[in-house]
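Field notebook, page 340. I keep forgetting to write these up properly, so this time I am using the form the group agreed on. The chain and the ligand, inosinic acid, are recorded exactly as supplied. Prediction of the bound pose follows.
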Amino acid sequence: MTCNILVGGAWGDEGKGKCITYLCNKDNPNIIARAGVGPNAGHSVEFNGEKYGLRLTPSGFFNKDAKLLIGAGVLVDPEVFFHELEYLDKYDIKSRSYVDYRCSIIEDEHKERDKGSEHLFKKIGSTGTGCGPGNSDRVMRTAKMAKDISELNNYTTDVPLEINNALENGEDVFIEGSQGFGLSLYYGTYPFVTSKDTTASTFAADVGVGPTKIDDVIIVFKSYITRVGEGPFTTEMSQEKAEEMGIEEYGTVTGRRRRVGSFDMDLAKEACMINGATQIALTCVDRLYPYCERTQDYSTLSGETKKFIAEIEDATGVPVTIISTGPDLTDTIDLRDELL
Ligand code: GTP
Ligand code: IMP
Ligand code: MG
């Protein structure tokens, strides 16, 4: 029985979708549970030449044996939920996707309030997906819950009960966080953050699992940093430099150009500490060092690449166990066996 949580180490878009796809394919968990804010996330999943952009469905969906749960702490936009059920129909997700009956619902009015808000949309640079106003209504205790929405009737369950029963029966559970450390309402670059905490303890609470049940916290860092929306960004570089280095990026949900910067060791140290990280997954190593694209073999990495990895381990005190060298799930170096 294992219960692991995956979290983002910077301002989101670290490549969590890719890492989750790899880990869920390799480790075959019985339950994959989505934590985090809500449909403001855009996870990218690629395998066998197919690409998917997801906002609510757990990124481990292609694993047809796993139950896909959305925790009570996650905001559910029924439009997005039903769209993804159709979009991923060939993976038979309709028969195994459930949301907790206590999830708050995002209604059209939340999206209008988000997009229409000078403060949220213009100053903070929100995704306009209604998450801020949705969480605000939950705090004000006026939000609707999933159990109040008749279309969701066949898709609600008690997520904590399902997960804790599974753990008791010796099954494996994988908890997917979304967003990233720098976007945490408490520990991020307030006020340029999302509408709740985005660290491992909150993700565990989102799906109703107590801290004593967690085995590993896997934190995902990209080899450089990106940020969408406004707010401080210490290691930011000019778009010209990012283009020169071939590391420019565009958002999955909003299509916005991402701001780009170099790896931030201080941010990584703090993110590892507050998340209680036990392992690091380092993504987009191939974009920084193109020679290593798609390699699955650590021994082919150059001295410079290995030095970069060793510096991260030394600074954070956390081992790098997954090295991602391309967007496809197979483009991965897995060093977890070396920990044993
Ligand atoms: P959020 O929930 O929005 O934080 O998303 P995310 O962490 O899943 O990341 P997102 O999919 O938004 O962005 C990461 C991008 O990098 C996607 O286009 C991925 O396909 C891509 N990607 C992930 N890992 C790698 C990698 O190792 N190499 C390359 N070249 N691309 C990668
Ligand atoms: P909101 O969560 O839509 O209110 O947006 C607040 C801030 O968080 C904005 O800067 C967004 O760009 C950022 N944000 C929210 N979710 C994500 C994500 O999944 N990836 C990257 N940035 C995000
Ligand atoms: Mg994203």
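OBSERVATIONS:
- The mean pLDDT is 96.
- The chain is about 30% helix and 20% strand.
FOLLOW-UP: compare against the apo run.
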